[in-house]
Amino acid sequence: MARPVVGIIGNSYLINDEYPAHAGGTMNSEAVAEVSGAMPLLIPADPRFVTVDELMATCAGFVFTGGRPNVHPEEYGEPETEAHGQFDRARDAIALPLIRACVAAGQPIMGICRGFQEVNVAMGGTLYPEIRDLPGRMNHRMPPDGSLEEKFEIRQKVSFTPDGVFDQLMGATEVMTNTLHGQGIKEPGNHVVIDGWAEDGTPEALYIEGAPGFTLSVQWHPEWRAATDPVSRPLFEAFGAAVAQWSKGARPETLRRA
Known about the structure:
Blueprint: E1 5-9, E2 11-15, E3 19-23, H1 26-34, E4 39-43, H2 52-58, E5 61-64, H3 89-105, E6 109-111, H4 114-122, E7 126-128, H5 148-151, E8 156-160, H6 165-170, E9 174-177, E10 184-187, E11 192-198, E12 203-208, E13 217-218, H7 232-247
Parallel strand pairs: 1-4, 1-5, 5-6
Antiparallel strand pairs: 2-3, 7-10, 8-9, 8-11, 11-12, 12-13
Helix pairs in contact: 2-3, 3-4
């Protein structure tokens, strides 16, 4: 039996500073295939090549991945500054309307890092350009040096709302995660429920209140060793279960809120 298809929203890159390419981290595909039980399909996030309707008809769910470019501040009504970093306007043009359409339809989505921020912006929320510049906040960015294992090291405590959606999923009100982001949520969007925080108060987990389908999204990178990590695995398993329901024809009236 064919596996359900999960679209992985890719990023634009220049290989050797000259060859344009769409790419996605292998660990995203591993998590979707090995833990969610779905077939990963890398999406070229550019409206020249795909439309929201085509994507929703092709895929049973979507993972909005991390990436170096940030959501352009024009998308949440603020001027561009140097602190906002690099942008990918083509991804903005696909990801934001796709999130809104999936939330409305109940089609499963999961946001990771930039994708977490995209979910908030798509729902009308805003972002801080640089978390580490805020009083009392820690530096959440990826360490500039070291091995991949050192950069994705589990080093951050995240606390969930007691008896909330993430607490129930994880079976714990506190977990340990990695942290590799510069920006973060400033004001939550419409119906965005912040359900997990780092020790410095930075939002780390959210879902969309009242959404008929799966909308759990996180600021950390759960795709890192998702098959063996006790925090990552239940997240991708729950996403996979929602995707499987959707692929079998289950629609909002039969799907759980999360």
